[in-house]
Amino acid sequence: MQPFRSRHCWECGRCIRKFDHHCFWIGSCVGELNHGKFFLFLLTQTLSEIVALDLAFSAHGQAALDYSDVTNDVLRRQKNHVQTVFVIFIILLFLFTIFTVILGVYHFYLIISGQTTWEHASRSNITYMKPYPVGVLPFYESMRENLWQVFCHGGKVREWQLHQPFDLKEKQGFNWCDNEYYSCC
Fold it and tell me: Residues 133-139: contacts with CB within 8 Å, 24+ apart?
């Protein structure tokens, strides 16, 4: 039997434990043993983009000063070209920074809620998740425990256990009667 939270990745050609997604940016799958590293990658990528934005703004300001007293038409056109390239670069860099920040915030939410991208996005297609109402997280422990499992696993995979519905009812406070699979009547 396939372990809970694992999935076969057609891109990598192997099964991934606690499958999150296949990331074309890193050319590999994000799973149980590298989800924390992927999040740290997003964090460092965001920081490097912020530094690059700062440098680009500084360079743009310096270029404007260097060409402030230009009277020659050729140099004036060159000044306009340089400023256009800087503006395009800054816009693209800003968009990449926004994308990376949003992706980082999303993965932080997934980590503290004990979910993966696959479970969050394809919940209705995962057989063992179907009986649980939307909003019920069967692998949620606590924020602290979820962070510990992602960042301090020691290179060891975990045998994931699916929490029983009545344990989750007390822990997460949902009404088990509001489910398409069970009826209290």
Answer: 133/174, 133/176, 133/178, 133/179, 135/172, 135/174, 136/168, 136/172, 136/174, 137/113, 137/168, 137/172, 138/162, 138/163, 138/168, 139/4, 139/5, 139/114, 139/115, 139/163
